Amino acid sequence: MAITITMGIQKGGCGKSTTTGILGYLLSQDGYKVLAVDMDSQGNLTELLSKKPSNEFVQKSVLEAMQRLDPTEYIVPVRENLDLLPANNFLATFPRWIYTGVTYLGEKIRFEGNPSMILDETLEKVRDDYDFIVIDTPPSLSEQTTNALCASEYVVVLFECSNWCYSAIPNFMDSVDGARRHGKRNTKVLGILRTMNDVRRSDAKAFNEMIEEDYPNEVFQTIITRKAPIGRLSLYGFDENAELKQALDQYENFYKELMERVKGR
């Protein structure tokens, strides 16, 4: 039975897609069978892992998988031990479909049940096929995010060292609590990962310290600083990338911390 981990925060530019992709890659390199699920209509995780435009997955995405409550036809193998359930811009129509029962193609497919549990029910068909499922989420407290949280045992909260992200944390923590109360996975925060840290800025250092004071048991000790090879990972990907070791260096420390916490639960 797969362990499901969502990467989330309702602010953009915090490294959710990059972190999800790297975590999926590192797990697969460690011999685990992994499914990466893209729940963001921007499709950044899809493009990072598949190296294809997300629009190539129109009518072949996580949206159709949820509408049919079966992901098996929509899962794309991307490398050894790593599969992808892709997304594209039509995932933005997910809320409209939930509340009207009409798809973006005009089909009538009504979901009967708790609308926050659609992804959880969809993934149930393949949980036994994987060791880990990792989920990327959009920068909003949307139906997509709620479904990802309710489908997960664990959540990694992404914290970009800034005032706006600092103020977003309490509301996101409340959303995780809501998923634990209303979902079936006993959803918990696995940790807070501090990302996009600019070592030149004194305010970033201050926010790093503040979040550690507020959540001393949740923060990972690893802090991801801004590095060009990480930023260029979306361009070069994981294959034939001369900068890959530099891009993954800090994340490997985070991976070790994360796995220690998963195994210790």
UniProtKB/TrEMBL annotation:
UniProt cross-references to SUPFAM superfamilies, sorted A to Z: P-loop containing nucleoside triphosphate hydrolases
Superkingdom of source: Bacteria
Location of the AAA domain: 4-184
PANTHER family hit by this protein: P-LOOP CONTAINING NUCLEOSIDE TRIPHOSPHATE HYDROLASE, PLASMID PARTITION PROTEIN A
Designated name of the protein: Cobyrinic acid a,c-diamide synthase
Species this protein is from: Parageobacillus thermoglucosidasius (Geobacillus thermoglucosidasius)
